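To fix ideas, we quote verbatim a fold written out as tokens:
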Amino acid sequence: MVEQKQIPQFAYKLRTINRYLFDILVNSEMWFAKPDSFNDPFDCAINLDMSGSSQEEINVYYDKFLKSKLNEKERLILNPKMITKEKFEELLNKSAKNVIINKGIGCFLDNKEELLMWAHYADSHRGIALKFDVLKDDDFFYPSRRVVYTQEYPKYNYLKGKNEVAEKLIFTKSKEWKYEGEIRIIKPKSGQYKFNPESLVEITFGCKTSKEDEKTILEIARLKYPHIKIFNAIQNQRNFKLDFKENINWL
């Protein structure tokens, strides 16, 4: 994935300092959430478009694939010889969303510089950023892709592009979210997944992280992640940006 430029080598996770962060650091594991827990109502909820499909294609696909996924009541009320595009689209969207509703999705960033991300996901710069080397944990970071951001609501013909369903449903968002630079990892179901401690290569404290929180996290890092680098985010004095100063004496 890295070699094919689907994702960068390094992925970032911004976190508020709370018991969930300590679970991540102490247990070297991370929660992968269900799509319906996300804050964007369109996320993983894009409707599949049947407008480019012929009635013959719909009938064949229904008979071979979709019919077996319906309950008895749904099958009885349908005319197997002539299913309208509208009804087929309704059934297919229901089926597709049922498939992904219980998937586990891990959300990462492609950088740690974005001011808004620190504000939204790291407790207004009081939290931290975790940096992972994707190449040091193939199992944890597979499969993953960059999110695609688009101005137009995607038009998608499921019958002619079945292999692209995950990309459209899981990896497509409105361009309003483009500033996130999101990378997503997909797991079979939601839950906790272990990562290789060696893949966590850096911790960056926000420019408002308390000294007490820094001390606690450094104590954990000394025991669990002595190989990592430690940085502190600092407000740049001439631009709206963050600078990052390495702490070379933290051990």
Q: What stands out?
A: The chain has two domains: 10-43+105-247, 55-100. The mean pLDDT is 87. The longest helix spans residues 85-100. Residues 55-100 form one domain.
